[in-house]
Amino acid sequence: MYTERAVRRTYDARNERAARTMATFIISLCAILMLTTVSGLICRKAQLPEVIGQILVGILVGPSLLNVMHMSDSLSLFSDLGIIILMFLGGVGCDLQLLKKYSKAAVIIACMGVVFPVAVMGGVSLLFGFKPIPAAFIGVVFSATSVSISVAVLREAGLLDSKEGVSILGAAVADDVIGVILLSVMCTLVNTGSVDVAGLGLILLKQVLFFVAAAVVVVWVAPALMTLAGVLKAPSGIAVMAVIICLAMAWASNLAGLSYAVGAFFAGIAVSNSDYAEDADRYIEPVGDTLFVPVFFVGIGLQTTGVDDTKMIVFIAIMTVLGVITKVVGCGLGGRMAGFGGASALMIGAGMVPRGEMALITAQIGFNEHVLGSEYYSTIIFIISLVTLVAPLLLKLTIRKVPGVGAAAAGTAGAEQ
Amino acid sequence: MYTERAVRRTYDARNERAARTMATFIISLCAILMLTTVSGLICRKAQLPEVIGQILVGILVGPSLLNVMHMSDSLSLFSDLGIIILMFLGGVGCDLQLLKKYSKAAVIIACMGVVFPVAVMGGVSLLFGFKPIPAAFIGVVFSATSVSISVAVLREAGLLDSKEGVSILGAAVADDVIGVILLSVMCTLVNTGSVDVAGLGLILLKQVLFFVAAAVVVVWVAPALMTLAGVLKAPSGIAVMAVIICLAMAWASNLAGLSYAVGAFFAGIAVSNSDYAEDADRYIEPVGDTLFVPVFFVGIGLQTTGVDDTKMIVFIAIMTVLGVITKVVGCGLGGRMAGFGGASALMIGAGMVPRGEMALITAQIGFNEHVLGSEYYSTIIFIISLVTLVAPLLLKLTIRKVPGVGAAAAGTAGAEQ
């Protein structure tokens, strides 16, 4: 009798909580869509990238200012799916031949974009009194690009299939690969004081296996599946098959230790390599725009917490500026080395500035592993948000300077109005 | 120091759990879409309603058989959103003028469809040895129709805007209103032994307020908002505005004590009353089909648990048959009383058979309030699943018998191939 009563009480509490959670989620989602509709209007009038408005909406309603909305489990799920859909659409819009052509350039850009933040921001952290390992960790945190924000800006400007666009996307994939390796090196270094070569070998093996599998999917599996979906003529069959491929590859890339975004990006490329690229884009875009993508960008703002400690202001200011400059200079130099002109290299550098989930996860691990104290942990999260807020603005500005591309982007925007 | 370490450990555990949850969710969603694509093919070949295949997929992979998938919080969220989107699309496809014309018929059908299950299934429960209040509670559980399943079948057959279709949808709304009142009467009866008239008055007042607000939204607010969205020409603006209206009304109906489905249905009607009904349908349908609706139907199967107790078999068999018959006869008689012909009345009765969330919630409350023992609670959930599995089959069969409508449905299906 006692047990049954206890079970009842647990059931009761869980259901009440679930019901309240659902109501809160629905009204939060509704509010996010309303506010981002308004912010989108303002940004288009002011010729700002829309993502900036969405992040600011998150900061406004989040714990830093009004404190009326918080990042719940459900919003967090939608935000993660927003990244996946955004990267999938990035892949669909990406030109596979162009990506292949600029893959070497992408690797150079990514490497330079890792070396600069690790060296400069790690070095400056030493000057701020951090010990070598925590300083290196801070460098690694700021080496991880989250390109999804640039994807949104590039889509807005219609530049996903420009040579600068594919270089940014390719470099972001390479950046993720390097980031995972660096992070695992740092983790074993922190825990054991030495580098675990066997463990690293396993990580590399898993990554290689993923890329081989991804190539097979892009070239053979996905086009066959999409053709099958077209033949079967099920209602929404094309859209469902595209989502199946997207989720399967996102899951596989996560299994290989990479981020979901990488798998989703290759899924997008795979679908764009079939006869149904346009259909997939037309069906999946509203799925992202109506539900998931706004939650992702507002979520960045929601996760930003204010910093009370005025002593930190110098640290924050310097690290934010360096966070932007190290990527612009590093990746820009990489772009020049790969043969891009000055304006294009600058645009590529700006496109690699955003930091997001990957940097947050790395900082989180540093916090869990006792490498970062809690005061520096929240400060670093604040810096990541600031850098990410500057990034789309910078990308939009640099796009205008690129001969041909800037005019094309302006032309596209003009044609839409 | 101790506190910080404790905080770290909590963070760590929560993040690890969140990461694992996300991976499980992604592969579950992917598996659901793959399996329902296959089940959809089989059902179309066998001329069965696709929802039956989807529910069977859930039973197959769920705890009753293979036990490889479970209803997680995330899947449950997607399932709830699936109901909302399905009912929204039901509203978009519904003909407002026709619905108005048949609103009196709908109320008669709903009332008859409540009286029969409460009287017959409550009475039979008395024969099975239940005391009066638990017996009445079982009757109330089986009086609540969940029409979303019929909406899927009616959409498949292109019959949402037939006079039988709007009568089913209207009756389902009236059924929800009656259900909420009955449930609160039962709850106060169980807790205090008498009926709380003031509380009932408040519930009625909230419902009236909701319907007044819904009418204002349908006639003025929604068409104005949709026109505004059309003028603003934001990317995906029409789809986003439709989702905003849908979520806001679902939230409001929940606030008024009604189910989310009722609000979503009126939101659909509101959008269909604007100039952008077709756009909304075209954008929102893939959102539902690719992600949420399959999760809802598979989720019904996932929540079905087998019953070990062989003594229960007679109870299950009788109650399942009665669960189907009481609605078919009750609502069918209601249809006849409202002037429908025999075949149409039978189709309306079949359309009102499905039980879902509302019945599950009522059973849950009965369990929490100690009215139902745990052995009867899980048995009743099993019966609800069986009834719901029979319902779409029955509806599809009865549709064929309706003169004109059946031929039209066959014609639509033929034209699609």
Main beta-sheet annotation of chain A: none
Label the CATH architecture of chain A. Answer: Up-down Bundle
How much of the sequence lies in strands of chain A comes to under 5%
Regions of chain A with pLDDT < 50 over 5+ consecutive residues? Answer: 410-417
Secondary-structure element order of chain A, N to C: HHHHHHHHHHHHHHHHH
Rg of chain A computed from alpha carbons, rounded to a whole number of angstroms: 22 Å
CATH topology of chain A: Na+/H+ antiporter like fold
Structural class of chain A: mainly alpha
Overall tally of domains of chain A: 1
Name the biggest interface.
A-B, 60 and 60 residues
CATH class of chain A: Mainly Alpha
> Helical stretch count of chain A?
17
Distance between the termini of chain A: 69 Å
In total, the number of strands of chain A is 0
Helicity level of chain A: over 70%
**Assembly state:** homodimer
Shape of chain A: globular
Give average pLDDT of chain A, whole number. Answer: 89
Folded structure, characterized:
2 copies of one chain form a homodimer. Chain A is mostly helical. The first copy, chain A, has a single domain (74-155, 162-294, 311-408), classed as Na+/H+ antiporter like fold. Helix content of chain A is 82%, strand content 0%. The longest helix of chain A has 44 residues, at 2-45.
Give the topology, please:
Two copies of one chain form a homodimer.
Chain A: H1 2-45, H2 50-61, H3 73-93, H4 96-101, H5 103-127, H6 132-141, H7 148-157, H8 163-192, H9 197-232, H10 237-255, H11 260-272, H12 277-302, H13 312-337, H14 342-351, H15 357-368, H16 374-401, H17 405-416
Helix pairs in contact in A: 1-2, 1-12, 2-12, 2-16, 3-7, 3-11, 3-12, 5-6, 5-8, 5-13, 6-8, 6-15, 7-16, 8-9, 8-14, 8-15, 9-10, 9-11, 10-11, 10-12, 13-14, 13-16, 14-16, 15-16
Protein name (chains A, B): Sodium:proton antiporter
Main location (chains A, B): membrane
Transmembrane segments (chains A, B): 21-42, 81-99, 105-128, 135-154, 166-187, 208-232, 238-271, 312-330, 337-356, 376-395
